[in-house]
Amino acid sequence: MLLAVPFAAAEEQSQAPAQIPQAQTQAPVPPQTVPQPPGEAARFSFHRVGEAFVRLDSVTGQVAQCSQTPAGWTCTVAPDERTALDGEIARLQRENASLKKSLLARGDVPGPLAEANPGVKPVPPGNVPDPSPGTAKPPADLKLPTDAEVDRAIAYMKGVWRKLVDMMMDLQRDIQQRKG
Q1: What is the pLDDT of residues 113-156, one digit of tens each?
Q2: Which of 35, 39, 9, 1 is nearest to 20 (CA)?
């Protein structure tokens, strides 16, 4: 949809948004000097984007891109995606409600639905392991380290700890020497 909005082809002197009415029948004038009809003082706001403007209608929320053509300034209304988004939201809400109803009908009640319906109790699947201490069995392919491997790991950690303590002592000695 094209809307012809004649205003001057003169370049803007500033980057500030300009305000103009929807249509005029008189000669084009610069956007800063266009008079506003009573009651529509701030209906449209313009924002420069390169050589064009984006027009926002503060009453309807409609956005249009306005640019200069040989015939004057024209504004092309941007497609309104809000209705498509609202339709998708409504569809998802209906789908969500139907899925919740089917879960309730089957007796599968997850999370907050279980609290909302105290009469319906969830049933865990049969393959959940018992977390009680002493009842868990390690997997058959689990290989534990031998005593020799554990002793080597402990000896290695002792060496690392000794080196760390030595480094801290050297650092402390250096700090005391600098102070004294």
Answers
A1: 555 666 666 666 777 766 676 666 777 888 889 999 999 999 99
A2: 35
pTM of the model as a whole: 0.28
Beta-bridge partners for 44: 57
Of the candidates 3, 15, 20, the one whose C-alpha atom is nearest the C-alpha of residue 73 is 3
Q: For residue 72, list its beta bridge partners.
A: 69
Closest CA to 10 of 26, 31, 25: 31
> d(Cα 152, Cα 171) in Å, to the nearest integer?
29
Report d(CA 26, CA 8) in Å as an integer. 11
**From the CB of residue 37, how many other CB atoms can be counted at a distance below 10 Å?**
9
Q: Sort 29 into a burial class: Cβ within 10 Å, 0-12 / 13-18 / 19+.
A: middle
| Alpha-carbon gap, residue 123 to 147, rounded angstroms | 44
CA torsion, ordered 148, 150, 153, 155, to nearest 10 deg: -70
